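Project channel, design review

CF: Before we commit to the Gossypium aridum constructs, I'd like one complete example in the thread so the newer folks can see what an input/output pair looks like. Taking DUF7745 domain-containing protein.
RD: sounds good, go ahead.
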Amino acid sequence: SVDLVPTVEEYTALLHCPRLQVDKTYSRAAYVPAFWKKLMNITRMSEQWITARIKQKGECKCIPWKNLRDLILVHPDGKKKVDVFALSIYGLVIFPKALGHVDKAVSDLFDQLDKGVTPISAILAETFRSLNACRRASENSLPMWKL
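CF: and here is what came back for DUF7745 domain-containing protein:
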């Protein structure tokens, strides 16, 4: 039996996310600033620039990857380029919700990183949940193959 689920330590290394406060894990805060305010903080762009690009996809607010990609290419601040790229990876690869968009929930998680809260436990839990769903689906399809 091979265990394909990365450990907390492996996720920490893969995401280059230092475990600053091991006892603090991500949980949604009671007060969450508006999506556009978080994007302003992450990108250092104006309110007008942000609000012009926010889209409604289903029930969530998102910003298109295309806008973030264009910003990465021209942003004068190297650290902010990395922050916007990291936000994009979280939204497009680790927690995808709307194809080609980064949604509000990802900005909430990303905002916690500045506070020293690690998302590794949340990512690991999401991985277990996804793998569990795949396992259950494959168990339900096995009787069909016995025919």
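RD: helpful, thanks. The chain has a mean pLDDT of 77.
CF: The longest helix spans residues 120-145.
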